Amino acid sequence: MFGKNLLESISFQELLSTYVIPWGLNILFALAIYFIGRMLAKILVRLMGKLLYKSGTDVMLVDFFKAIAHAALLLLVIVAALDRLGVNTTSLVAMLGAAGLAVGLALQGSLQNFAAGVMLLLFRPFKAGDYVEVADCAGAIETIGIFTTTLRSVDNKEIIIPNGSIYKGNITNYSARSTRRIDLSIGVGYNADLCAVKRILVEIVQAEERVLKDQESLVAVNELAESRVLFVVRAWVKSDDYWPVRFALNETIKLAFDDHGISMSPPQMSVHLSPAPTP
Asked: Fewest CB atoms within 10 Å of the CB: 18, 72, 85, 207?
C-alpha cells in the first residue's frame, strides 16, 4: 500500500529527471571512460614499446614492461569508471589490496619466481641464445619468462627451470665472452721423449687454423704423476669454435702420437702379491 502511494506521488517527469536521466548519464559516462581509457592505454603502451625498442632494450624486457603498464593503466581506467557510477573506490582499492596480500601469502613460491624473473630481465646475466649452466642444468637459453626460463640442451631436450632456482644459485654464461680457452690434459708414459712430445703438441696447436694466433698458447709439463707424465695444452679460440676445436685437437693428438709410437699411458696401479706363509 505504501509503495503504491509512493509511486502515485512521484510523477513521470520527476522519476525521469531524478533517477533515469542522472543514472543513464552516469552509465554512459562510465562506459565512455572505460572504452576511451582502454583505447588510450593501448596507444600509450604501444608508444612506450616503440621508445624502448629504439633505446635498444631487450625484446623480452620490452614485452614485460608493456604487459605491466597495460595492466596498471587498465586498472586505473576501471577504477575511474566505477567512481563515475558512484562506487566507493577507496573501499574497493582497500579490498583489492587485502585480496592481493592474501593471494601473495598463498603464492609465495610463485612470487619469488616472479621477482627473480624481473631481476633476470633487468640485469640480464644472459640473453636468448646464450649457452649457460644454471641450477645444475646446461643448455642454450630459448625464452626468459616471468616465472620460468626455458633451456634447450645439446641433445635437444627442453628444460624449464623456475626463475627463483636460477637467481639464487651460480650462473655460468659460456657465451658472455667472445673467446674461450681450451685446456687439455695429455698423459704419456715415462719412457716417452718429452722433448719430442712437446714439439708435436706445439706443431698441432700452431697448425690448427681456428686457434687464435694473437693469444698466447701454452704447452708444458703439468705434473709428474705416479704412472705417467701429464702435459697441459692451452689454446684460445672463438667461443663458437670451442667444442669443434677441442674435439679436433684430441683426435689429431692421438693420431700423431700413434704415428710416432708415443704411448698415452693410462693410470696404472701395481699390485704385489706375497705368498701366504706356510703353516
From this structure: 207
pLDDT in tens, 67-104: 778 888 888 888 887 777 776 666 666 666 666 655 55
Alpha-carbon gap, residue 267 to 103, rounded angstroms: 60
CA 262/CA 133 separation, integer angstroms: 37
The CA distance from 231 to 218, in Å, is 10
Give the three-state DSSP class for 188.
Answer: strand
Tell me, what's the pLDDT at 239?
93
Question: If 0-12 CB within 10 Å is exposed, 13-18 middle and 19+ buried, where does residue 244 land?
Answer: exposed
Helices (H) and strands (E) in the chain, counts: 9, 8
pTM greater than 0.70 = no
Q: What DSSP designation does 10 have?
A: S
Which amino acid, 250? N
Instruction: Say what angle helices 242-259 and 194-207 make with each other, to 10 degrees.
Output: 140
